[in-house]
Amino acid sequence: MTTPSERARSLVWAGAFLVELNKDQTLPLGIRRNAAVIARHFPTTLDIKRMASAPFPDVEMGSSAELADWLKEYPDGPLRDSTRLRFPEEQPLPKSKRKRED
């Protein structure tokens, strides 16, 4: 059975994952664009905290230290109200990221 804390952690992880996908220039443009579109309507950490404060919460936010621990594998951080993901445009990869033509 999923606990409210596990549910909140999953939402935080998924939001952070959308941030990572959007910023990863090595991914195809379509994936980065989809991440931006989905993130626009995905709950932010503030939304999750609000859900946790409802009379009968389905989610439960931990402490700031617990949130930091949840995010240690996501260097770009969680999806917050202040997060602004840009809609990616086609850009050539840097030479170091291109496939070698042998």
Task: Walk me through the structure.
It is built from 4 helices and no strands. The chain is elongated and about 50 Å long. The chain starts with a helix and ends in a 32-residue tail after the last helix.
Layout of helices and strands:
Layout: H1 4-23, H2 29-40, H3 45-52, H4 64-70
Helix pairs in contact: 1-2
Short description:
The protein has helices spanning 4-23, 29-40, 45-52, 64-70. The protein is built from 4 helices and no strands.
| Tally of alpha and pi helices | 4
Shape: elongated
Mean pLDDT: 81
How widely separated are the two ends?
Answer: 52 Å
- Radius of gyration from the alpha-carbon trace, in angstroms: 16 Å
The succession of helices and strands, N to C, reads HHHH
Task: Please report which band the strand proportion falls in: under 5%, 5-15%, 15-25%, 25-35%, 35-45% or over 45%.
Answer: under 5%
Poorly predicted regions are none
**How would a textbook summarize the main sheet?**
none
Helical residues, percent: 40-55%
Q: How many β strands by DSSP? A: 0
Structure class: mainly alpha
Task: Provide the descriptors you would attach to this structure in a database record.
102 residues, 4 helices, mainly alpha, 0% strand
